[in-house]
Structures are given as C-alpha cells and as structure tokens.
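Notes from the pairing session

We agreed to fold both candidates in a single pass and log them together. This is the raw record for the first candidate, unedited. Please don't reformat it; downstream parsing expects exactly this layout.

Candidate A
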Amino acid sequence: MVGLPASDENWRAQCQVQFGMPPKTDLRRLAQHNGAVVGVIPVNRMTRLIQDLPGQPHIRELADIGADGRGAVWYEFRGSSQQGRRPRVWLKVQALLTLTCQRCLSDMLFLVNETVQFELFADENTANAVEAVDEGDPDAPEPLVADGPVDLVQMVEDQLILAVPYVPKHHACEPAKTSAGEPVEEVKRESPFKVLEGLKRGSK
C-alpha cells in the first residue's frame, strides 16, 4: 500500500513547526549562512498542481492533517556555501497525492518523495551557459537564477508538477469500460513540461 515513509516521520514533525504559506526567501543568503527553511503546506493551495487532479483532502490548519498525511505537502530548503563553488540549495519534498488511474479511471494514491539540488546564479545568461555545459549529466545540479527573494511555494509546486507521472496507472487493474462493454479511451493529460514552459513564457 502506498504511504508516507515511516523513516521520515521525525523530519515531517520538524516541518510541521511551520504551517502555511512561507514568505519569499533570499536563497543566496540562505546558502551563505548554511541555513534551512522547513514547513508544511496544504496541497489545495497549489492551484496549478491540482487543476487536473481529482479532489484532494482539504486542510485549513495543522490539526486537519490525518494519520495518512493526505492533503499536506512537507518541504525543506537547505542551503550550502563552500569555498571554490557556487552556493547551492537542496529541496526535499514529500506528499501523498490522489491521482486518476488512466486505465481503470479510479482514484489512486501516488507518493512524491524527492530531493533536488539547485546551483544558484545571479543572472540568467550565466545559468544558461552552465546548463549547456552540464547537459546530459544526470548528477549535475539544476541551475536557478536567484537574484532576490524567491517564492518557495512556487518552487515546491513546480517540483510536484514534474513528479506527477504523465500517464498515472495502478500496477495492476482492469481497464474501465463503457455501458456497452467497450474499453474507455484513456484521458490525455497535458505534459507538465509544457505547463511549466508556458508559465515561464507568460512571466517574461
């Protein structure tokens, strides 16, 4: 059965010290001080993520988080600054999302449990140049332009959008059928990469 990792229970408890939408944060300063920002956010506040998903449990306050943790998103931003390399930030995010299986068309639980590393840059040109050099290296950190306060919720939401499978399916289930007994055509879902690219174009 899909569920949140028991080994991270203490980590999630630490995140729950801060509930709700965090203020924008200067990630370069966070890295310079080897600092961290943790918290938990209701998934229903992430409108871009849930617009094509079935209903998620609604959480208004910390006490609303149930034993299974559905409806909550835990996150941690941890900065690091070492001599001889650019400042970096690690983002760890966990969430148990309700998706629609594209084979049987019923609800399915999907665990997001990811850690991604970002390398911070002051301008887009430098970031693009480094990205071109590192292209094809799966271990290279993601370039991130951080020339001022950054919206942490947007970063967490972007990571969740990318984590959701393009065509979610149960490991084993029967295809849904129409009243006439014919298999129901699988629902097409827009690529998350196209969604994020469109948002980037719209912000320019």
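Candidate B (folded immediately after A)
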Amino acid sequence: MRLNQLCIGLLCAVAVGSATAGEKTPGSNQVQQKLLQSGPVTDSASFINSLRASGAGAQPAGEVEQPFFSVTGQMIKVHGEDVQVFLFANPAAADAEAAPISPDGMAIGTSKIHWIGSPHFYKKEKLLVLYVGDNQKVLKTLEAQLGGQFAGK
C-alpha cells in the first residue's frame, strides 16, 4: 500500500511538472523535490514534515478541542496562522466525523457555528484539518498539501 501511495505521489508530481513545463518559477523545482522527499501526507507527522519541506513552516502551538470532533487536535502555525489538525484512527472514522459538516462549514449537524473568520475544512486520509481565516498563502499551502477543501467558504 505504501508503495502504491508513493507511485501515485510520483505520478502526480510528474503530471504537475508536465503541465507547467513551459512556466519557470524560481525555486519551484526545489520545492517539488522537497515535497517528493517528504512523502505523501497520511497522518499528522507526514503533514507537518511536508509543510516544513515546502517552506511553509509548521510550528506546534498546543492542543485544541472542538466540540464537534471526538478527538483532541493539534494546533500548528502555518505561515504564522493557526491551523487545527485532527488525527483519527482511520480514514473511515475521519469520513464519519466530516459527514455532518455543511458544505459552507457554517453548520455541523444541527448546530450553527459562529466563526471568527471564514472556515476551511480539508480531509486527507485520517486527517481533518480546519483553518479559520482568509490568508491566501495559507489556503494555497493547505490545498497543495491536502487537496481542495471539502467544506467552507
């Protein structure tokens, strides 16, 4: 399974490299190489390693609890912004916890949430990641690491 994930990750990197072959961005090859070396994102540790390899930083900032998640999360700083990372036992458990989140992220089940900023929810493997804010640098970094958000504004 790990070999399959590595192969898929390498294929994605090749596809991205091919799609942007005509564009030259200073340092982009170095970032891609670092991302490949850090491996696929499958849990909190690989997510943090991947963020650090991309240059986004990932400084631990303590624990965080959300009443709508059954596990305690880890707060990390990404480009100086708070990002909440919740690790579940397996992808099915993460899917189950993500299911009641409304598409706009403003309600979880029957509870309406009053966020201090725009909520952005991401899911990857056994991770659920929540960022509340609008920093485009953070949003682009999270999307690059985790794919598009599944809920939020």
